[in-house]
From TrEMBL:
It comes from Microbacterium proteolyticum. Coiled coil: none annotated. This is Enamine deaminase RidA (YjgF/YER057c/UK114 family). Pfam families: YjgF_endoribonc. Residues 5-147 form the Endoribonuclease L-PSP/chorismate mutase-like domain. Gene3D superfamilies: RutC-like (3.30.1330.40). InterPro entries: Endoribo_LPSP/chorism_mut-like (IPR013813), RutC-like_sf (IPR035959).
Length: 155
């Protein structure tokens, strides 16, 4: 099954490429690899939430942050697909780096970034298996709760 067929079977419409918020490009191809810039969970030009991830009231919940990581992954797929002529030219995921803006006592960054990792498995099958880092940070651009960078392979 092709990547576009998997996305369709999942009922997922690939978003448009999120415009850069600073001096960079969303993705760059080098040989048979595509590197994405950090992708925020933008939906129709806006963040669905801002703030830190944590367990107590007033913070972004880990469950919500996980869904935002999934959106980051969709935005990364869109950015990478744009530089290789479509999603079916993406072979899979080589490396994922996930950043979670979290309160100091929060240690659930890996579970949050699973939102992105699991989407890659659904979309790319075995080729979605990847090396990964999940890093807690004090703040991200635009006060986003999550951000991901991805290295894709090209077919």
């Amino acid at each position: 099954m092709s990547v576009s067929e998997r996305l369709s079977a999942l009922g997922v419409d690939l978003p448009g490429v999120v415009p850069p918020v600073a001096a960079y490009i969303p993705a760059k191809r080098h040989g048979d690899l595509v590197y994405t810039s950090g992708q925020l969970p933008m939906v129709q030009g806006a963040l669905p939430a801002t703030g830190k991830v944590g367990e107590s009231g007033g913070l972004v919940s880990p469950a919500d942050a996980r869904s935002y990581a999934r959106q980051c992954a969709l935005n990364a797929i869109a950015a990478a697909a744009a530089v290789v002529g479509g999603v079916d030219n993406l072979g899979g995921v080589l490396k994922l780096t996930g950043f979670v803006a979290s309160v100091p006592e929060f240690t659930g960054q890996p579970a949050v970034i699973n939102g992105a990792s699991e989407l890659f498995g659904e979309v790319f099958g075995e080729a979605g298996a990847h090396a990964r880092s999940a890093v807690g940070v004090p703040v991200l651009p635009l006060d986003s709760p999550v951000e991901v960078e991805v290295v894709f392979t090209v077919v």
